[in-house]
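Chapter review: from sequence to fold.
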Amino acid sequence: MAKKKNRKGKKRRRQNMSLFIITAVIFIGVALIYGIFLNKIMEKNEAKEIELEELEREQKEKQKELTKKQYELNYYQSDENIEKKAREELGLVMPQEIVFIPNN
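The token string follows.
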């Protein structure tokens, strides 16, 4: 009777040990798969962050260009610029001005 209990106890311990090993292997496998999956996500996230930084840098450059172009447009449309071009390039004068032509 004692031998039967001892055999059953050994058998039960082996089953428990086998169950523990199987559980441990499954846990390690799941942990490895999770680690690989997490690593892929982190790599994608890092790539997206780099892409975002590049796009933000490009946006700042484009905003600077836009600001410069708006300034230029405002300057070229200003009355001062139009008057300056009319005087320098077309030789025009304002109606109340007196024009002196030098003798050469």
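Two observations follow directly from the output. The mean pLDDT is 90. The radius of gyration is 42 Å.
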